[in-house]
Request: fold
Amino acid sequence: KIVADAEKYKAEDEEKRKTIQAKNELENIAYQIRNTCDEGKIQIDESDKDKLTKLCKEAIEWVDNNPNAERDEYEHKKKELEDIWKPIITKAYGQSQGEQGQGMPNMPGMNDMPQANNHNGDTSGPKIDEVD
Reply:
């Protein structure tokens, strides 16, 4: 009987675990976005910063006011936040990189930059230059 009960509740426990994980992910992204806006290390437009701060506050309040929300609700809220956040942060990184004159690794448009190990197409091994 105990084994049967354990099997019966295993699926419920797994779903509850996934719901809690989704809730934590939503809270984490909301706090990370808010902290990124507050730190000022990345130059984000003031209107975008206000918009993001408001959205983060709303998301955190929603989580606090809906402790029994379903997993798909948490995931939907997280996706909404990410869909607004990604274009803003991409634009901000583009502006800050343009000011510095350097590119971020794996950023679009940076594939044509020379790589450290490309020595005129010779990739057979290390190349040593003599220095007098």
